[in-house]
Amino acid sequence: MPCNSRLLLLGTYNQGKVREITSILANCGWSLASLNKFPSIDADESGNTYSANAIAKARVYSSSTGLLALADDSGLEVAALAGSPGVFSARYAGENASDADRRQLLLSELAKTRDQDRRARFVSSVAIADKDGYVLNVVEGICEGTITVAPRGTGGFGYDPLFVPDGYDQTFAELSEEIKNRISHRAKALIQTRQFLVSIS
Q1: CATH code for position 104
Q2: Which domain holds residue 134?
Q3: 3-state SS, residue 1
Q4: SS3 for 170?
Q5: C-beta of residue 57 within 8 angstroms of C-beta of residue 35
Q6: Do 90 and 44 form a contact (C-beta atoms < 8 A)?
Q7: How many structural domains is the chain composed of?
Q8: For 167-182, what is the mean pLDDT?
Q9: Under a CB-based contact definition with an 8 Å cutoff, are residues 174 and 153 in contact?
Q10: Does the annotation count 73 as an active-site position?
């Protein structure tokens, strides 16, 4: 293996993501550390697919720290908006916009379409790379659902208060972490990632 320390870097400064990832990867045979233990590391997200962005970030985080690194890229695809915001989900309302700004813009753009179709899906790609740039694993998870007419719930982060997964009446921001960490797009990708990590631990 390219890393002998059994320490896996979680490539995100987002504490909500850190909690989700740590919960799902628990007891995977690896110790976990987040980017918050390191100085700010800038990783480009200019790819046109989730996997391209996840791979690019994992490579930068690993080469910058010398640790095996995991990174994800996720997005919300809304049918009535032709799949937008998609890979631009995090930058949808501009670089310095808040989660609330992005949610408001999404609802505003959706209202302009006058389309009754509120179908949407979350997509997540998770990649693991080593310091030499070698990509060890890439997986994808998808969660289908619908967009609400207004934000609901105080949990989660990002677009969670707007998204109701199929089979449920509550948004990701209203559902318990236990349920979300079982059915979400990121959870589905991370469960596959966990299986990989166990196999190489």
Answers
A1: 3.90.950.10
A2: 7-200
A3: coil
A4: coil
A5: no
A6: no
A7: 1
A8: 95
A9: yes
A10: yes
3-state secondary structure of 62: helix
- HSE-CB for 189 with a 13 A CA cutoff: 27
C-beta separation of 165 from 144 below 8 A: yes
Degrees, nearest 5: CA angle 63-91-50: 55
Is there a domain that residue 1 lies in? no
Residue 75 belongs to what H/E stretch? strand 68-78
pLDDT in tens, 46-90: 889 999 999 999 999 999 999 999 999 999 999 999 999 999 999
pLDDT surpassing 60 at residue 5 = no
In whole angstroms, give the CA distance from residue 132 to residue 116.
48
For residue 150, the model assigns a pLDDT of: 96
Question: Within a domain: residue 2?
Answer: no
Pick the catalytic residue: 72, 73, 130, 160?
73
Cβ neighbours for 142, distance < 8 A, ≥ 6 positions apart:
121, 122, 123, 124, 185, 188
- Residue 178 inside a domain? The answer is yes
Of 155, 148, 150, nearest to 175 (Cα)? 155
- Beta carbons within 8 Å of 107's beta carbon, 6+ residues apart: 147, 149, 150, 162
Residue pair 153/90 in contact (Cβ under 8 Å)? The answer is: no
